[in-house]
Each structure stands twice: as C-alpha cells, then as structure tokens.
Amino acid sequence: MSFARRSEAIALSERVLANSTNEKVRSTTRANLCFLYLKREDQENAMQLARTLPHVWECRELIMPEMHPEEDYRAELRKGIRTALSAICAKIEHAQHYPHVREDLLIALGPDGQDDGDMTKQLELLMQFLTEE
C-alpha cells in the first residue's frame, strides 16, 4: 500500500472511530487501524490503540458457552476453544518467519525450551476436553 493510500485509510479509519456508534464497526476499525499505524511505523499510536481492544476474557468464544443450557455448554465451549486455538496457531505459524519470536516461544516453555509442567498439564486438559465424547 502506498504512503498516500495508507494515509487516506488512516484518516478514514480515524473518522469512523470519531463518528460511529456501532461497536462491531468500531472494534474492527480499531484492530485494522493498529496495523495501519504499524505500517506507518507509528508504534506508539498502534500500541495505545491496541490497549483499547477487548481482552480475551470478553471475546465471544468464551462468553457464548455461558448463554447455552448445560446440555449444550460443552459443545459450545469446544467450538470456542477450537476457534481461539486456530487463531493462536495462525500466530505461531506466522512467528516461524521471525527467528527471534520463535526463540521467545521456546523460552516461554521454560529453560532450554522445556516445559515447567504447567503448560503440559494445561495442554493435556485441553486435549482431553476436546476429544472426549
């Protein structure tokens, strides 16, 4: 995207945020604007705006299961987990293109890329939940 097009997209996005009351439109615009700021090498505005986005505890994938009766809760939670995991895995795949990010992912597991036990337990619980009938 050219500098002029990017500047125009940023201006339009900022106008949407200033004038729209539709929360879905505003949320999507904020997310897109974060990336436009990064393309403009304006990390400060990108980070400031990213901090206004909802955190994971407010996402539909975690809230929707609560809206269902007990007999549907598990199925809805599985759907939400699969959606969230798909997004996380896409980020991890993208990180493979950046060696320093890949190293950070390994460090997150613990010394020498070894899991400290908590992550393994969480992954085992997750796999058990997703595969049980």
Mean pLDDT: 84
What is the beta-strand fraction? under 5%
End-to-end CA span: 48 Å
Shape: flat
Could you list the spans in which at least 5 consecutive residues all have pLDDT below 50?
Answer: none
DSSP summary: helix tally: 7
Nearest-angstrom radius of gyration? 19 Å
Share of helix, binned? over 70%
Biggest sheet architecture: none
> How many strand elements?
0
The helix/strand series, from N terminus to C terminus, equals HHHHHHH
Which structural class should the secondary elements be placed in?
mainly alpha
What does the model show?
By secondary structure, the chain is mostly helical. It is built from 7 helices and no strands. Helix 1 (3-19) packs antiparallel against helix 2 (23-39) and helix 2 runs antiparallel to helix 3. The radius of gyration is 19 Å and the shape is flat.
